[in-house]
Structure to design on (710 residues):
């Protein structure tokens, strides 16, 4: 078994849809953590329990009409680089990328929802949307939760809510997050001062690739830290409030940059464009950093020939596993991938420029 | 008095002429140092003597048909930025750029020869040519020397030859030099090992802007150190020999680069092109460094839409005084010049690219 063409060959179309606040927020995401009632939590469960949980869930979901069109992938049957590809598509987590027995994932046909089986929790549902669309991802997530909840009995405590392997997920089991693009604050060295207070508001900041990842290209993922003691609505509302505030700060920073160093910003944006359209090899980090500048160029009206869609797609396609699977780059050497990455970027930007 | 249009508005056409070995040698240059017999050397002479020397030479040259079409400029009558302009054109030396009473310069109409009055010596003749053309610059220099020698009595000693203010110029009074472009050796970190032995052969290495200047854009000026105890022919021959050797080393380095890191070289060249055609501000040093990469790209056949002529002209035009005089850049701030420089480069490269 390899990943079906419906996942690999298809572009994630939701990334191209026009989205609210996409000049600052690139994606919104939410997930629920759920566990099967009466079964040991996955991190401490012996293989036999994991297998039992896996079989029970698959059997139950087989009876559900909503989940039927989803692609089902057994992680033991996909290769490490295929798992990396799924991770780059944000369909599985870093934890799931490691693979492992009795782990599986259901991927929705439109590639924006997935169900992870035997990750840290027995079940994790996740939904993605373009731009700032927290109510939309929450609605999609609730539907998934309801559908699966009809056929799988969840571990639930009247006082604590949904029970989870890690106490930070207890209660609602909800983690809602938005990916923010903050080049204005970054150039003005105001990231620290703006993001440092977030933990006091129960929020966590991560880099582009989620937990433990470095900030790459001025992308910052903001999410709720705990899910206990608040309603889902409250969690999402508080996140949205801070995100709105950060958006304002970012736009303020950009307008200050225009007033105070317009030439410097234009220079940085056009140099990024010049390098991206001419380099013969480029690594992922540099590509992300320069694409970030280009995105600022689009948002600020300097780069008129490009769109968010082109950049959204590129930010995904320049990742190593995408280069291997979609563009035939030799996976063996990073030199080959750097060359394939440079070629892909040149081609996409020049195509977009001549449209 | 300002610099005549024949100098400022005219492009130095000799820079555009096809020239031998121009893939490694950008220009050849030679100068003679001469002094007026019976007069004190300039560095220690009181103002009255300098004035006397100045008047004597001008009076004599006024009677010479060969020098008649030359532009005569009194340094007291040109501004500091006009002197900087003449220096960038290599028509006067760094020493003359300082200005000073009783100093003057004659500039040949084709802008490749000049006669400097009351520099370190009473008279300095200098001639320039494109590429490796030492015999040609020597012939032009001899002619100038002969013509002036007919009307001005030179200080000459039967045993030591021409007498000069500094003993390193004693004898022939000749300094011959070539400007070499050595990106191959530079990228391979072989500049040191190849240039360090030169002083043992009586040669000196300098940067793009001559004495005490930093190496900028992998340009190295190689010239004879002393001019005593050897004939002019011997000096030129020995210089030509070493230059030929260095040319071979440079071409060897380039071909090794192609074999060992072809992609890296192409990447460096095209990134330079990408930045130069997109930057909105750029300082002289970065411009020189990137133009140097582009020159390598032309020489190695990667950049087909550009020529040495375009780059020769640009390397001159990106200098600060040229930006002010020929492109109206506000001389007050380096920010304005950086912007004007970026605009000029973009325009020139894009024009050349669409031809």
């Amino acid at each position: 078994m390899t990943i079906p063409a419906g996942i690999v060959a298809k572009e994630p179309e939701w990334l191209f849809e026009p989205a609210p606040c996409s000049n600052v927020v690139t994606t919104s995401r939410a997930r629920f953590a759920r566990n099967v009632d009466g079964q040991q939590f996955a991190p401490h469960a012996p293989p036999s329990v994991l297998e039992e949980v896996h079989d029970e869930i698959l059997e139950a979901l087989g009876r559900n009409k909503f989940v039927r069109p989803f692609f089902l992938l057994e992680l033991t049957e996909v290769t490490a680089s295929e798992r990396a590809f799924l991770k780059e598509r944000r369909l599985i987590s870093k934890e799931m990328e490691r693979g492992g027995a009795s782990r599986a994932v259901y991927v929705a046909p439109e590639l924006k929802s997935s169900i992870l089986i035997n990750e840290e929790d027995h079940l994790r549902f996740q939904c993605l949307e373009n731009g700032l669309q927290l109510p939309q991802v929450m609605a999609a997530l609730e539907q998934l939760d309801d559908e699966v909840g009809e056929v799988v009995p969840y571990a639930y405590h009247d006082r604590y809510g949904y029970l989870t392997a890690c106490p930070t997920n207890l209660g609602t089991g909800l983690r809602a997050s938005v990916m923010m693009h903050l080049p204005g604050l970054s150039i003005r060295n105001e990231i620290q001062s703006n993001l440092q207070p977030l933990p006091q508001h129960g929020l966590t900041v991560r880099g582009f690739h989620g937990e433990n990842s470095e900030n790459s290209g001025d992308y910052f993922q903001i999410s709720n830290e705990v899910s206990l003691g608040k309603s889902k609505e409250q969690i999402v509302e508080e996140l949205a409030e801070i995100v709105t505030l950060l958006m304002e700060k970012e736009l303020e920073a950009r307008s200050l940059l225009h007033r105070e160093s317009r030439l410097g910003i234009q220079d940085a944006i056009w140099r990024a464009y010049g390098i991206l359209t001419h380099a013969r090899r480029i690594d992922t980090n540099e590509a992300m950093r320069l694409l970030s500048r280009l995105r600022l160029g689009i948002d600020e009206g300097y780069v008129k020939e490009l769109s968010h869609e082109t950049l959204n797609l590129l930010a995904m396609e320049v990742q190593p596993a995408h280069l291997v699977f979609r563009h035939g780059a030799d996976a063996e050497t990073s030199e080959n991938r750097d060359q394939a990455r440079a070629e892909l970027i040149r081609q996409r930007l020049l195509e977009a420029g001549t449209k």
DSSP finds twelve helices and ten strands in chain B. The longest strand of chain B covers residues 25-34. The first helix of chain B runs from residue 5 to 8.
